[in-house]
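Figure-free illustration: sequence to structure, shown twice.
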Amino acid sequence: MGKQATRVIVNGKSYARVVDARLTLADFLRHELNLTGTHLGCEHGVCGACTVLVDGRTARSCLMFAVQANGCKVTTVEGLAPEGELSVLQQAFIDNHGLQCGFCTPGMLMTLTELLRDTPAPSEQEVREALTGNLCRCTGYAGIVAAALDAAQRLRGAAAKPGAP
């Protein structure tokens, strides 16, 4: 297969690389760009730990080749908030005990980022359905669901303030 030129925007920064055509997006992010927040669990697309946003939609980066992201905008967990800060959702995870070991957390955050963007007032059932592709062996999901619902409420409150985006 050889090597192919790839240009991708990751977390707002443009990158151009020549990569092995079989290099996964997960390995590209982790090894080429040193963005290690994208975790690799099963490497079969089942666990959701490698979930990123590609052009705003969730994607399993372990199942996608880096060259397939050519021309796309990719957001990883590192891109959810400015460096040194936390997004509303990340803060809600902390406040609601939505993480324990943290291995699944980046994928959970990316999945829930898409959900909360598309569904500003999700029900508990909608949150649980969105998370069906993300496995966690530590939390039992209660804190994760509570964090998502809390973040949704916080985001709606911020949007209701005058001058808010």
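We now fold a second protein in the same way, so the two outputs can be compared directly.
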Amino acid sequence: MSHVKAGGTSKNTRDSQGQRLGVKLFGGQTVKVGQVIVRQVGQTKRPGKGTTISRNFTIHAAKDGVVKMTSRKVRTFSGRSVRRTEVTVE
């Protein structure tokens, strides 16, 4: 008979791949129509003029131009004002 005890089972062997989120094009960079500017979970950055937002909160360029990031105050659901980055294409 073997003299090695049973190792048991492991439950934490699964791991998912990263979603590759984040800012893809920063302020001052040129952008073409349809290019992804920001991939995000939730609306941490807001779309401005020259951009569109998709169902998964990805911000795309709606026209050719230069990316510009500005900070502005946004009122939340509870009525509190917080600073959010607004992404525009000029």
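Summary for the second example: The chain has a mean pLDDT of 92.
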